[in-house]
């Protein structure tokens, strides 16, 4: 695959889990995704269609990772971001206001 070659990619969001997405070639659709994954993913809700090349930057990944995964397995799974537990420590630590 050449660096400048673009593919039409369809992005589906999960009906079961927030911020989980599957990227597939638009021509293939969700039929390339294993059944076990689709059970966890739920109904694929169309989110967007992208003209994607390897140089394209996306919010939490990049075109190269997405296209390489699609080339190998037929799809790219984007999981929700890991929650930062350090922010929760602010609420766990007992504090006393001093004036």
**Beta-strand percentage?**
25-35%
Helix coverage percent: 25-40%
Radius of gyration from CA coordinates = 18 Å
Strand order of the largest sheet: 3-1-2-4
Do you know the CATH architecture?
A: Roll
Annotated CATH topology: NE1680-like fold
What class, by secondary structure content?
alpha+beta
Order of helices and strands: EEHEHEH
What is the subunit arrangement here? single chain
Total tally of structural domains: 1
Overall mean pLDDT stands at 87
CATH superfamily: YcgL domain
Helix count, DSSP H or I runs of 4 or more residues: 3
The tally of beta strands, per DSSP, is 4
Structure description:
With 99 residues, this protein is α+β, with helices and mostly antiparallel strands. The chain has one domain: YcgL domain (NE1680-like fold, Roll), CATH 3.10.510. 25% of the residues lie in helices and 26% in strands. Strands 3-1-2-4 form a four-stranded antiparallel sheet. A hairpin with a 6-residue loop joins strand 1 and strand 2. The mean pLDDT is 87.
Short description:
With 99 residues, this protein is an alpha+beta fold.
Q: What is the topology?
A:
Blueprint: E1 7-14, E2 21-25, H1 35-41, E3 44-52, H2 63-73, E4 75-78, H3 86-92
Features:
25% helix, alpha+beta, globular, NE1680-like fold
């Amino acid at each position: 695959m050449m660096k400048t070659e673009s593919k039409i990619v369809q992005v589906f969001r999960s009906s079961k889990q927030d911020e989980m997405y599957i990227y597939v070639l638009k021509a293939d659709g969700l039929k390339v995704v294993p059944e076990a994954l689709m059970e966890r993913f739920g109904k694929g809700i169309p989110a967007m269609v992208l003209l994607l090349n390897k140089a394209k930057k996306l919010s939490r990944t990049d075109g190269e990772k997405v296209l390489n995964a699609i080339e190998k397995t037929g799809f790219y799974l984007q999981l929700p971001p890991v929650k930062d537990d350090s922010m929760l420590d602010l609420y766990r630590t007992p504090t006393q206001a001093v004036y």
